[in-house]
Write a structure and sequence with these properties.
The structure holds two protein chains of two kinds. Chain A is α+β, with helices and mostly antiparallel strands. Chain A contains 18 helices and 25 strands. Chain A folds into three domains: 154 residues, D-Maltodextrin-Binding Protein, domain 2, CATH 3.40.190; 150 residues, Alpha-Beta Complex (Dipeptide-binding Protein, domain 1), CATH 3.90.76.10; 249 residues, Dipeptide-binding Protein, domain 3 (Roll). In chain A, strands 14, 15, 16, 17, 20, 21, 22 and 23 form an eight-stranded mixed sheet that branches. In chain A, a hairpin with a 3-residue loop joins β10 and β11. The termini of chain A are far apart. Helices cover 77% and strands 0% of the residues of chain B. The relative contact order of chain B is 0.14. The chains are: A alpha+beta, B mainly alpha.
Chain lengths: 610, 323
């Protein structure tokens, strides 16, 4: 008898648990619906203006006047910076750290994306000539003046000389020639590119180095320079032009910056910014720890993802922070099919000729595209925190072609397209091509990336609605890269890129037919001269012309067409672009979130008011 | 003299061992499909030239056997090479070793100071309520996975705000005076030490209790009792000496774990020790760093065992005779 009672009790408890779970789950979903955060209209950022006081050309902040003092604690995920030398950084964290310390000649208007002067007072562009006027009387953090010599030294010696990370140098080589840089007078510099090259202007945002500090390092050769201003360098040795200057670096714990007393941005009362005394970056190992640190009050700012967003939105009401939605991110997620039609060294096709028939068929690619339910993925995988994407340019790109309209999943259209190419279905609904081959292929992504794995499962389901047989195989990241880059024996893949919202030319490695990341039709060294598809030829042309044109309107035409081609030809089927959500403590004022700049783009103007 | 020869012999034996360890580790790392440049390759803004330069700099364009030869040559010279981001491996390790040692030494010290007496007390008061209570507590200590326990404590720290959420020092550490600095470090250390201490205390206490119980049951202890010796001298003079041998072996392993034993806890608490460094190195296939840490682990294990063996020779006449 007792046993029966125990048994019933146990069942009750288990059922109770199940019920609790069920209820919690349902609530979760409705929460997301209720809290789908709209991209609010935040106050417009007042752009800084040039003013001259006592023969010094300052940049004057137009934001409200704040109080001096206080600390801002941000964080980075990973092992922390590898170097503080702005010319050596190869990873995001190191670049972030050096961007805080070293300003470039120009920067980006965080609202419109235009290029605006920063360390330069003004600039003029005339086809191939870029005349830069520097600010008179502004100083490095050690009190030495910033002059044309520093600019010439940085560009001519460090960048064109190939010191450190040569990616800037590589990307300004135009037809095998480097631009030239000349000093006109102490505060004027002229760059001349061998051909008109529009992306060059934005490259002038590269940091400028203090000649009197860097010169001795340059003289000691490239090898020495690779280790110069590393993370072991004493903070006193840094001389910076940016708002902050490093004060302390504790490995695996934090980087502390202090204000640069000689900074050239002033507030409306003509006092030198930044307001904050200290800027701290905590180095945290993973996202979970970052969230805990924010909740524990050790962090002032955090970028949120997935389920945390709904939770933080709920907490926001009775906490001291605000959750900002700053719109689509630069990240993209896409599906690609292997359109390779070449043979390897042994004379074997990389992609079997049967599959080639499918993947090289525009109708097939479009059918796949129409079968994919982007909205469902946005809702279920990204917790509603993403926007469906149809173009290679991300949604916050200033070059986005807005004529390319989004559409919904349409299986009938897919079937029509497949029929057009001779595909047919048997009685069980299995798809066959016109040569009676069953449509079956592998879908890869990198294992461990839960988001891509979830997309893979949904893509598989969507395509199986069309009668295709999809073998979904998440594999280890490095093996996947090896497949995509070297062995080329893959059918379909889900990957992501990070684009630039400002400069489509950054994607030339993807879209130029001989690019290193021309993923849908990767050409190895031996195949560089092989036959191109028509649309590839057109893309090559558009990309070349887009870089040569200088006016924005002219460039936009070329890049609009490139987006249209990708939209129609579907070499990459874009799925969605995540939305960036950032939580920031309320005590910080002068916050002007923008899609291009994020929340703390004006770090020098941010101040604390309890 | 005999001991010296024995030590020399043991040291000579380690050389082939280290070579084999290094060979196996090197080849396993290099033959695994992890490509240190995979991230770079998938970055649209990285040019072909940069990729080539990186491949050359890391020596990836040469056959594995030559890569190993190069590594071994510099290792013998005492040069651990540079990490994939160009920093010196030795400086990277030097930054982290003191932090890890601080944590592990405190834990080992505490757990031996507390664990041994508790084990003895439990064995002497066998089957008493005190012993049973300790058994329950240590079973819990052994059963909780350190990872899970660490996460629980972190959540505790967040919810109460009594403890900092991971790390070793606060962000204003530089401006503190000496007393505040000590307090700050202690404050940060309490949680990770609690996790590791609970774990190793449980094991040690059980071990000590078990050994002593075995010995207390033996004939010579019965004889000592029959002789009319006080319970104190029976336990501490006769029983304990014989019960301590397995613990000395354990001490050898503890020594080996000094640098690597706390990796998981370090990771959860974001402790700036070796654990985080090496995990990241493995994920990125940063060969020099991984090799350095593996070799360090191997050397520590060998030294730990050597110390344990020597201690055993000194304490146990039976082994001394055998050697």
């Amino acid at each position: 008898m007792n046993r029966v009672i125990y048994f019933v009790l146990c069942i009750c408890v288990i059922l109770g648990f199940c019920k609790a779970c069920l209820k919690a789950d349902i609530q979760e979903v409705s929460d997301i619906k209720n809290h789908k955060i709209q991209q609010n209209l935040y106050p417009t950022y007042p752009i800084e203006k040039n003013v001259t006081i006592d023969n010094v050309d300052y940049l004057q902040s137009q934001a409200p006047i704040g109080k001096f003092g206080g600390t801002f604690v941000a964080s980075t995920i990973g092992e922390g910076p590898k170097t503080f030398n702005p010319f050596n950084s190869k990873d995001n964290i190191s670049s972030t750290m050096s961007e805080i310390m070293y300003d470039g000649l120009v920067s980006t208007n965080p609202v419109t994306g235009e290029t605006i002067p920063k360390l330069a007072k003004s600039f003029e562009v005339n086809d191939c000539e870029y005349t830069i006027h520097l600010r008179k009387g502004i100083k490095w953090s050690d009190g030495k003046p910033i002059t044309a010599d520093d600019v010439i030294f940085t560009w001519d010696k460090i960048i064109f000389g190939g010191y450190g990370n040569t990616s800037t140098r590589d990307s300004v080589i135009i037809d095998g020639e480097l631009p030239s840089v000349n000093k006109i007078d102490d505060y004027t510099v002229k760059f001349i590119t061998p051909k008109p090259f529009a992306p060059f202007l934005r490259m002038l945002s590269s940091p400028i180095a203090p000649k009197h500090i860097f010169e001795s390092a340059i003289n000691r050769g490239k090898e020495y320079f690779d280790g110069y201003l590393s993370t072991n360098t004493k903070p006193e040795e840094f001389v910076t032009s940016g708002a902050f200057k490093i004060k302390e670096y504790v490995p695996a714990q934090r980087v502390v910056f202090e204000r640069n007393p000689n900074y050239y941005i002033i507030n409306k009362e003509n006092k030198q910014l930044p307001y904050l005394d200290k800027l701290v970056y905590l180095i945290v190992g993973d996202i979970n720890n970052q969230v805990l640190k924010f909740e524990g009050g050790e962090l002032d700012e955090i970028s949120l993802q997935g389920a945390n967003v709904a939770r933080f939105k709920e907490m926001e009401k009775h906490s001291n922070f605000t959750v900002y939605n700053i719109g689509p991110d630069t990240g993209t997620m896409y599906i690609s099919m292997n359109m390779n039609n070449r043979k390897d060294e042994k004379g074997k096709y990389y992609v079997s000729p049967i599959k080639q028939m499918w993947f090289q068929d525009k109708n097939f690619r479009q059918a796949v595209d129409f079968a994919i339910d982007r909205e469902n993925m946005v809702f279920n995988i990204a917790n509603g925190l993403a926007e469906p994407l149809f173009t290679p340019e991300t949604l916050n790109s200033i070059f986005l072609n807005t004529n390319l309209k989004p559409y919904k999943k349409d299986l009938n259209k897919s079937k029509e397209l497949l029929k057009k190419s001779g595909f047919y279905w048997d009685k069980q609904g299995k798809l066959f091509d016109k040569n009676n081959n069953r449509v079956e292929f592998d879908l890869y992504t990198n294992a461990g990336n839960t988001e891509r794995e979830a997309i893979g499962v949904m893509v598989k389901q969507d395509l199986e609605d069309l009668g295709m047989k999809v073998n979904f195989k998440p594999i280890e990241f490095n093996s996947l890269v090896n497949k995509l880059m070297a062995t080329l024996d893959w059918d379909m893949v889900i990957m992501g890129f990070t684009g630039s919202p400002l400069e489509p030319n950054g994607g030339k490695n993807v879209w130029m037919s001989d690019g290193t990341l021309h993923i849908f039709n990767q050409r190895l060294e031996k195949d560089l001269n092989s036959e191109r598809y028509d649309f590839e030829k057109r893309l090559d042309y558009l990309y070349t012309q887009g870089a040569l044109a200088v006016k924005f309107a002219d460039r936009k035409k070329y890049y609009d067409e490139y987006q249209e081609i990708v939209y129609n030809e579907k070499p990459l089927i874009y799925i969605y672009s995540p939305i960036r959500i950032i939580a920031l403590r309320n005590k910080f004022k002068n916050i002007y979130p923008t899609s291009l700049g994020g929340v703390t783009h004006n770090i020098e103007e941010i101040f604390i008011e309890e | 003299m005999q001991i010296l020869i024995y030590i020399l012999k043991r040291i000579l034996q380690t050389i082939p061992l280290l070579i084999i360890v290094s060979l196996i580790s090197f080849f396993i790392i290099r033959l695994s499909p992890v490509d240190p440049l995979a991230e770079l390759k998938l970055n649209p803004s990285v040019s072909k030239e940069t990729l080539q330069a990186e491949t050359q700099r890391l020596g990836l364009d040469k056959p594995i056997i030559i890569q190993y030869g190069k590594w071994a040559k510099s290792f013998i010279k005492g040069d651990l090479g540079v990490t994939s981001s160009g920093e010196k491996v030795s400086t990277k390790l030097k930054e982290r070793i003191p932090n890890t040692l601080l944590l592990t030494v405190i834990v080992i010290f505490l757990s031996w100071i507390v664990g041994i007496p508790l084990g003895i007390a439990a064995a002497v008061n066998w089957k008493s309520p005190f012993d049973r209570l300790l058994t329950v507590l240590t079973s819990i200590g052994m059963a909780i996975p350190s990872f899970f326990f660490a996460v629980l404590l972190l959540i505790f720290a967040v919810k109460t705000g009594w403890f900092p959420v991971g790390g070793l020092t606060s962000s204003n550490f530089m401006e503190m005076n000496f007393g505040q600095k000590i307090f700050d470090i202690t404050h940060h250390l309490i949680l990770p030490v609690t996790v590791l201490f609970t774990l190793s205390l449980a094991g040690l206490q059980r071990q000590m209790r078990g050994n002593l119980l075995d010995v207390l049951d033996s004939d010579y202890v019965k004889f000592a009792r029959a002789k009319g010796l006080s319970e104190f001298s029976v336990v501490f003079k006769h029983a304990l000496r014989n019960a301590v041998n397995p613990l000395i072996t354990l001490l050898g392993f503890e020594f080996a774990g000094l640098l690597s034993g706390a990796a998981l806890t370090e990771y959860v608490f974001q402790y700036p020790g070796l654990g985080r460094l090496i995990l990241e190195a493995v994920l990125k296939s940063d060969i020099n760093l991984v090799m350095a840490s593996l070799m360090m682990g191997a050397v520590m294990l060998i030294i730990g065992n050597l110390i344990a063996d020597i201690l055993l020779i000194l304490t146990d006449p039976r082994i001394r005779e055998g050697a």
